[in-house]
């Protein structure tokens, strides 16, 4: 009986008070988290906002869908893009992802002039099936030799 009371008294008197040193690792993790994740993201968001506010007529941009175009008019929250000759679309300013250097649209290869060389003709479906059957015959003969 006396022993149980002694253990109970010892347990209540040995409780340590929380110190600032026990919170130091948590504070360190929060500081690292801020500098590695939060600060760069807010910096990028600020740069995007400044870029969108600075859009002018004639700028070349890429919008969120991947379309490239030249700005023809700028409104409060919308811009009009010319994506092809005489084809214009109206999009939100928030949809603009990247501001391209001047003259980029002229230098882009649209793929219209790409033609296959004469000696590289596309294969017919029957040619492809024949080559597949030859490949399967070759692999089955290799397996039988093992």
From TrEMBL:
The entry's keywords: Cell membrane, Membrane, Protein transport, Translocation, Transmembrane, Transmembrane helix, Transport
GO cellular component term, pick one: plasma membrane
Superkingdom in the source lineage: Bacteria
Low complexity: bias regions: 111-123
Coiled coil stretches, renumbered: none
Transmembrane segments: 20-38
One Gene Ontology term from the biological process aspect of the record: protein transport
Polar residues: bias regions: 136-146
Entry's localization field: Cell membrane
Alphabetized Pfam families for the sequence: YajC (PF02699)
Keyword Lyase on entry: no
Membrane topology: Single-pass membrane protein
Spans annotated as Disordered: 104-146
Mitochondrion is among the record's keywords: no
Entry-linked InterPro entries: Preprotein_translocase_YajC
Assigned protein family: Belongs to the YajC family.
Record's protein name: Sec translocon accessory complex subunit YajC
